[in-house]
Specification:
By secondary structure, the chain is α/β, with parallel strands linked by helices. The protein is built from eleven helices and five strands, in the order E-H-H-H-H-H-H-E-H-E-H-H-E-H-E-H. It has two domains: 126 residues, Rossmann fold (3-Layer(aba) Sandwich); 63 residues, Putative phosphatase, domain 2 (DNA polymerase, domain 1, Orthogonal Bundle). The mean pLDDT is 93.
């Protein structure tokens, strides 16, 4: 039996983008409220994160919604510029787990452009598993993405742990035998410590 540790990316490995700053950079003609609604609660955004809409189509629709006239290349540049800080505690924990012989990976709702950005700040060659919603064509907390993860990691045969900042994602993961921990990059160090103290992780 192996122990596998999976990490959400947004708000666990790095802080999600500053939407207000992106709004300014794009010189949007719509209101800030409309812009945030597009990112937080729109079918277009969900379609992009689940890989059902290409990056080009996503940006074209975003430009129509916002009235922005930036080029595709400029959007990518601004998109990457406003991505947040990396949580060094999480990075160190992933490295420590890997060095101790545990399997590590990521499980996150990301658009393809977010995956590309992530690969510029983190060496994904060190990961044993990479689960991205845009390539699985399903988003957390939908059952399909957890079914896929479960089929690959086999929670009935292995101990699979998952760190995520949203309770609903953790609750959904638990239905598939995944031991989910609701945490963020700011609190994960304490949760890791508790796992060491309980014997889940051998920190020697």
């Amino acid at each position: 039996m192996e122990k596998i540790f999976l990490f959400d990316i947004g708000n666990v490995i790095f802080k999600v983008r500053d939407a207000d700053e992106l709004y300014k950079k794009l010189e949007c003609k719509c209101s800030n409220e409309e812009f945030n609604k597009f990112f937080m609660d729109s079918d277009v955004y969900r379609a992009s994160e689940s890989g059902k809409l290409s990056t080009y189509d996503y940006i074209d629709i975003l430009k129509k919604v916002t009235g922005s006239t930036v080029s595709y290349e400029k959007y990518i540049e601004y998109h990457n510029e406003v991505n947040g800080i990396v949580y060094e505690d999480t990075i160190e924990l992933i490295k420590n787990l890997k060095q101790k012989g545990y399997k590590v990976g990521v499980l996150s709702n990301l658009k393809s452009i977010d995956v590309a950005f992530f690969k510029t700040i983190f060496d994904t060659n060190t990961l044993d598993y990479e689960f991205y919603s845009c390539y699985i064509h399903s988003m957390k907390p939908n059952d399909e993405i957890y079914e896929h993860v479960s089929n690959v990691t086999k929670p009935k045969e292995n101990e699979v742990y998952f760190f995520d900042d949203l309770k609903e994602n953790c609750d959904a993961a638990k239905r598939f035998g995944i031991r989910a921990i609701n945490t963020t990059g700011e609190t994960i160090k304490e949760d890791y410590k508790k796992m060491v103290e309980s014997g889940v992780i051998n920190d020697n």
